[in-house]
Amino acid sequence: MTAVQEFMAEQNLSRTLMARTDSYLAMLWRVHRGEAIPGGKRLIEDMPLSLQQDVTYEETKDYLEKVPIFMETDASFLRELSLKTTSYLFSPGDFIVYAGDMGREMYCVRRGLVEVIGDDDFTVVATLGPGAYFGEIGLIFGENRLATVKAKTYCEILMLTKPELDEVLANFPIVARQIYEAGVNNEHLRDVRKAALESTKAAVRRLSIKYAQESSSARASRTSHKSKKNKKTSGRVSPEMRYTTVFKQFSRRGTSADFG
């Protein structure tokens, strides 16, 4: 802990961020007694592969089997998939995902409570507990997230990424087609995907309008600046014009003298 605190001090981290980090590390120690850090190297990696699958399958099957896209898959697929899952801990108030971000992970709540935040970035529209899941649409199609989710209490979250799912599906082509069809045909997922696409289009429209307004403002500013510059220079006579005028006046005087 002291080494971590020294590192944070050297990096000039804010007191708030340092306090959050200290709280997180303390939670890790209470939960795992320093034996393993979720998200890092697992202790079971030195076991035979079959034993690794047995252990991780027992740990995760109750969560993975509840996800609609995995409900009809067989145990052999879930056993291999379970090895690709990773467990992470979150402190109260930590954000797990942000609305608008590209979704390439699915999450299952193992312990604790998480809150789903509405479009106003403030209102809690749902609270999810153990066994709940979110992000499955991004796991299949890799689309933008519709909502922000943050930890309400200390949470242990099981995460599965799209690249890891794709790696397993390469060995199960029939299951891959089955999962894709489940994602396309599931009414709930279809509605979620439609909402995600509409949300993306709305965001693009907002950015387009903002860009058009900024471009219009910039053009107006340049036009105004150019107009002011022209006004300032309109009364000025260039050296060439002054020389030409003087030369003409001199020429006229010279002509009058010659014929006087």
Give structural attributes:
cNMP-bd_dom_sf, 14% strand, globular, ligand-gated ion channel, single chain, disordered C terminus, voltage-gated potassium channel activity, four-stranded antiparallel β-sheet, 260 residues, alpha+beta
Compose a concise summary of this entry.
Helix content is 56%, strand content 14%. By secondary structure, it is α+β, with helices and mostly antiparallel strands. Helix 3 (49-64) packs across helix 4.
Explain this structure:
InterPro entries: CNG_cation_channel, cNMP-bd_dom, cNMP-bd_dom_sf, RmlC-like_jellyroll. It holds the Pfam family cNMP_binding. It comes from Desmophyllum pertusum. Residues 222-234 have a biased composition (Basic residues). There is one protein chain. This protein has 260 residues and is of the alpha+beta class. The chain has helices at 2-10, 15-32, 49-64, 75-82, 136-141, 162-169, 173-185, 187-234, 239-258; strands at 86-90, 95-97, 105-111, 114-117, 124-128, 133-134, 148-151, 155-161. A four-stranded antiparallel β-sheet has the order 1-8-3-6. It has a four-stranded antiparallel β-sheet with strand order 2-7-4-5, with no helix packed on it. Helix 3 packs across helix 4 (75-82). Residues 33-37, 203-208 and 253-260 have low confidence and may be disordered.
List the helices and strands and how they pair.
Elements: H1 2-10, H2 15-32, H3 49-64, H4 75-82, E1 86-90, E2 95-97, E3 105-111, E4 114-117, E5 124-128, E6 133-134, H5 136-141, E7 148-151, E8 155-161, H6 162-169, H7 173-185, H8 187-234, H9 239-258
Antiparallel strand pairs: 1-8, 2-7, 3-6, 3-8, 4-5, 4-7
